[in-house]
Amino acid sequence: MSIESSPPAVRPLRKDAVRNRDTLLAVARSSFAAADDQVPLEDIARAAGVGIGTLYRHFPTRESLVEAVYSAELDDVTSSAQTLVEAFPPDVALDEWMKGYAEFVATKRGMLDTLRAGWASGRIATPTTRERITAAIGTILAAGAEAGVFRDDVVPDDVTALLVGVFLTNPTSGTSDQPARLRALLIDALRPRTR
Questions:
Q1: CA 20 to 30 Å from 32, out of 24, 47, 105, 181?
Q2: Does 72 lie in the same domain as 35?
Q3: Predicted local distance difference test score (pLDDT) of residue 148
């Protein structure tokens, strides 16, 4: 007779462990945004008020910390679409969402090497970033089409492709008001056609 053993139950983290993890993520997010993801992990632990052992308990490798930061920021930018639609008219919601997405893209520039290496090696799970971004855009476009502010024939993935082109261009080219002009052009292109 064979007795199968069940996997051990995963114990929830203690409140102080959750607080430490959240603090480490917040410090890593701001550190990576200010510099890049090669900031010494000891500096992140010190700024979070914990020891390096605590950092490694939560994030055993630099890649796992980078992945957690990326995931948290992707969650923030994608979940903000519904909140913005509820707070603003759809065209304003889209402009505000695009500003947040631009910040997300800009802060990822310093993390790209680690992310790409991790994705290529399989040590970091390949995210569903494009699908999630497209779904967020779809939420805003649907609200805009229903309100008559946006055309109802726009494919959300087409808007994603346009945004990738806008935000992945050289950030030092053009004038400082270029991002706002490009967002305005995109919003105008989404408005219903008048005859």
A1: 181
A2: no
A3: 95
Residues 137 and 98 in one domain: yes
- Same domain membership, residue 21 and residue 93: no
In angstroms, the CA 92 to CA 39 distance is: 36
pLDDT of residue 43: 93
Identify the residue whose tokens are 């520039």.
109
Write the pLDDT tens digit of every residue in 133-154. Answer: 999 999 999 999 999 999 999 9
Domain that holds residue 37: 13-60
Could you tell me where the DSSP H helices lie in the chain?
15-34, 41-48, 52-58, 62-87, 90-108, 112-121, 129-147, 156-167, 178-190
Please check whether residue 160 is in contact with residue 129, taking contact to mean a CB–CB distance below 8 angstroms.
Answer: no
Tokens of 3: 């007795």
